[in-house]
Amino acid sequence: MKLRHVRAVAVFGVVLVALTGARGSGGGGCGSSHGSSSSNSDSSSSGGSQGSDGSSSSGTGGASVPGGGSGASAAERDVRVDDCRMDAAGKNLIAKVTVTNDDALDYRYDVTLQFKGDLGGAPVTRAVAKVDDLLVPASQSRTGEASTAYLGDGDGSEYKKCEVVNASRVTS
């Protein structure tokens, strides 16, 4: 096989993975919020990212699909980030997610989110939050909230988005 044919097959494979992985988990925009502790709530999500203005698009506050390709776990594909912000008191970063269980079995989900700054922007302190043991009945959705303490000196505006970095599910 000639080198150009190998390249064409490789490009086709990348395009196929990109198209089939479109439902993957993603992140949400934070605007001025970030966090590192967790709280349990009902939660549900299904890919994409959330901007601080509530929009779902590319760029700041836009869609991202880390871990959302064809290799993403079923649990990661079930999670959507709905909101990413600083709480009203300015002390905690908060992420809200929606988990949609399209399966015939009930599952309990654990979701880990990371708050991030702009790509190429100033470095930000690592901030991670979790939603633990969220029960999502078969063919239903639930929402959950994860929060973490803000460790910065400012207003949290350095955090621009949050992304699902890990999700798992077990039958309930």
Describe this structure in words.
It is a single chain. This protein has helices at residues 3-20, 74-77, and strands at 27-29, 44-45, 79-86, 92-101, 107-116, 127-136, 140-149, 161-171. With 172 residues, it is mainly β.
Properties at a glance:
8 strands; four-stranded mixed sheet; mainly beta; 13% helix; 172 residues; four-stranded antiparallel sheet
Across the major sheet, the strand order is: 1-8-5-6
Quaternary structure type: single chain
Characterize the largest beta sheet: strand count, sense, and whether it forms a barrel: 4 strands, antiparallel
Euclidean distance between termini CA atoms: 50 Å
Determine the structural class based on helices, strands and strand pairing.
Answer: mainly beta
Order of helices and strands: HEEHEEEEEE
Which blocks of ≥5 consecutive residues have pLDDT under 50? 8-25, 32-69
What share of residues are in beta strands? 35-45%
Total count of helical runs of at least 4 residues: 2
A few lines on this structure:
This protein has 172 residues and is mainly β. It contains 2 helices and 8 strands; from the N terminus they run αββαββββββ. It has helices at residues 3-20, 74-77, and strands spanning 27-29, 44-45, 79-86, 92-101, 107-116, 127-136, 140-149, 161-171.
